[in-house]
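One such shown below:

_____
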Amino acid sequence: MSILEVAHVTIRFGGLTAVADFCLELERGDLLGLIGPNGSGKSTIFNIISGFYTPTEGKVRFDGKDITGYRPDKVAGLGLARIFQNSRLFKDLSVIDNVAIGHHLHRRSSPLAAVLRTRGYREEEAHTYAESRSLLEKLDLGRYAEENAGSLPYGLQRKLEVARALATKPRLLLLDEPAAGLSAGETQEMMDFILAVRKDFNLAVLLIEHTMAVIMSCCPRIMVLNYGRTIAEGTPQEVQRNPKVVEAYLGVSAHA
């Protein structure tokens, strides 16, 4: 069974069709790159999958369950985590506090228990921080646990966002330009980090990335969007040779 199925999804904003008849299927453990020129609909598709937008037409299924129209928090609770293009860290909190926030998605204590700091709440809190520290160590970020998140170099902040997403115990990661704002060397390091996370945590990954050299080298399968429609899908080699892709990116026909 597929971990994610997007079936004939269309979304309109007023008279504008942002995404038209989009289909996608992702198996457990898959890595799929989603590319296209600016404004082609990539982030809109992520917003539909993660619950920020409800499609005008079509369905989204996660692990066989219809999640069309689910709130983002409910989608996350099912095992789908998202990293945004712009940093969403709590920069005034410590690194370990940021990761612990991800673990809170699965906390059982009530708000009242938190206010009263009951024994059950304190035990669960201790377990959350132990799990958070263990996760940071596994990702080679343990030495930064007590540092302020906003003081980290930007490349480490992006890795911390992945760590926080992993704390929600996902089965699918949506990564919206995780290397945005990084240098060429940092970008390659970030992609190596993501590939290792995918393997170590047995995750499916759907990735948007504008650095073509990186996405072509790390994604076995790629989908290309233009004006909200899929214009190509296949291996990196197949996509690079596709005349529609060449025209979308260069503005000229492949023959020219």
